[in-house]
Automatic annotation (TrEMBL):
Name the UniProt record assigns to this protein: phosphoserine transaminase
Pathway the protein takes part in: Amino-acid biosynthesis; L-serine biosynthesis; L-serine from 3-phospho-D-glycerate: step 2/3
Gene Ontology terms for molecular function: O-phospho-L-serine:2-oxoglutarate aminotransferase activity
PANTHER family: PHOSPHOSERINE AMINOTRANSFERASE
Family matches, as InterPro entries: Aminotrans_V_dom, Pser_aminoTfrase, PyrdxlP-dep_Trfase, PyrdxlP-dep_Trfase_major, PyrdxlP-dep_Trfase_small
Residues annotated as domain Aminotransferase class V: 9-356
BP terms from Gene Ontology: L-serine biosynthetic process
Reactions catalysed: O-phospho-L-serine + 2-oxoglutarate = 3-phosphooxypyruvate + L-glutamate; 4-(phosphooxy)-L-threonine + 2-oxoglutarate = (R)-3-hydroxy-2-oxo-4-phosphooxybutanoate + L-glutamate
Family: Belongs to the class-V pyridoxal-phosphate-dependent aminotransferase family. SerC subfamily.
Species the sequence originates in: Cryptolaemus montrouzieri
């Protein structure tokens, strides 16, 4: 420990980026492609940036096996900007949309969409977070413009187990901000997949949108041009100045994913990491606990309490303090949830998760030996 390379970053986003990518960026920062200029200083209409834009789109297509009738767009405004964009581009079709609310981000998306059309919440808020009621009780509207869900609720640590029940075959829209490229997905089953890049595939500043072609072309009149999927598509994602540096770094992360086994490789690693951590939580005799039902537990964001199911706040503060002494950072849970949260995005290695678990075991042993009590 002690060198600048050894910090362990379990942050929920912006999050850890692959070291190799950052080194490559560092090497090229002052002179991109021997141009004597930084990529940051170049026109977004230059051949250099055009190539980056094209290569990034192609890498997403290749990694996710995107069918030809789907478009890949890059935008700004963050994941939250995407909430408004989805509604303003799609809700106009019938004036209404179905929202599955499983946590913080889908609730926020539904609230945003309600500004632009009628939002139907598919099931009431369950008593226990992460419970999904029987599909027979779902209130689905056959005339919905789309059916929306959040694939992975980053704040709460809830991952949607599969595709949602969709008997009327309405276009499915999903927020994959925190799960994109962590597992294989069949893009052809979706209308729109969107999200911010800053969790798994790049730095903040760029939003990816994968949209089925026939869903373009019907935005609301009030839709600002920078959130208009059709405009962005027609302009090949350079409608106005994109976050060029962010797209450039994202493109490098995508190449890094390709070199490291592609999405399949990421998925395998994601399972190994999360199983390892959840096992440690399960095997702690209740010293650590996960608030989320097993079926819904996220592979990517793992919230847990320290010192019992409701957490012992002074113990949790101590946990964070001791973790930071070992240079394990950003383990504090979201302010609305409390407790701890370890985010295991693509750039976080199994080795790093093992170090976290080792620390958790030591912390537990130390605490129990000191208090000489069992929890
Ligand atoms: C981080 C996140 C967002 C918000 O993204 P911003 O870029 O901060 O607007 C939305 N949805 C999910 C699932 C997220 O993880």
């Amino acid at each position: 420990m002690g060198s600048s390379s050894s910090a362990l970053n379990f942050g929920a986003g912006p999050a850890k980026l692959p070291r190799e990518v950052l080194e490559e960026v560092q090497n090229e920062l002052l002179s991109y492609n021997k141009s004597g200029m930084s990529i940051m200083e170049m026109s977004h209409r230059s051949p250099e940036y055009s190539k980056i834009n094209t290569d990034a789109q192609a890498a997403i297509r290749e990694l996710l096996n995107v069918p030809d009738n789907y478009m890949v767009l890059f935008m700004q405004g963050g994941g939250v900007g995407g909430f408004a964009a989805v509604a303003m581009n799609l809700i106009n079709r019938t004036g209404t949309a179905d929202y599955i609310v499983t946590g913080t981000w889908s609730a926020s998306a539904a609230k945003e969409a309600a500004k632009y059309g009628k939002v139907n919440i598919v099931f009431p808020k369950p008593e226990k977070l992460g419970d999904i009621p029987e599909t027979s009780t779902w209130n689905l509207n056959p005339d919905a413009s789309y059916l929306y869900y959040c694939d992975n609720e980053t704040v709460d640590g809830i991952e949607f187990p599969n595709m949602p029940y969709n008997p009327h075959d309405v276009p499915i829209v999903t927020d994959m901000s925190s799960s994109i490229m962590t597992k294989k997905v069949d893009v052809s089953k979706f209308g729109v997949i969107f999200g911010g890049a800053q969790k798994n595939i790049g730095p903040a500043g760029v939003v990816f949108v994968i949209i089925r072609e026939d869903l373009l072309g019907k935005p609301m009149d009030i839709c600002p041009s920078i959130l208009n999927f059709t405009h962005i598509y027609k302009a090949n994602s350079v409608h106005n100045t994109p976050a060029t540096l962010s797209v450039y770094i994202m493109e490098k992360v995508l190449q890094w994913i390709k070199k490291n086994g592609g999405v399949e490789g990421m998925e395998k690693q994601s399972l190994e990491k999360s199983v390892f951590l959840y096992k440690a939580i399960e095997n702690s005799n209740g010293f650590y606990s996960s608030p989320i039902d097993k079926k819904m537990r996220s592979r990517i964001n793992v919230p847990f309490r320290v010192g019992g199911p409701n957490g012992d706040e002074s113990l949790e503060a101590k946990f964070l303090e001791e973790a930071e002494k070992l240079r394990m950072y950003q383990l504090k849970g979201h302010r609305t949830v409390g407790g701890m949260r370890a985010s295991l995005y693509n750039a976080v290695t199994l080795k790093e998760v093992k170090l976290l678990v080792e620390f958790m075991e030591e912390f537990q042993n130390y605490t129990l030996s000191k208090s000489n009590q069992t929890i």
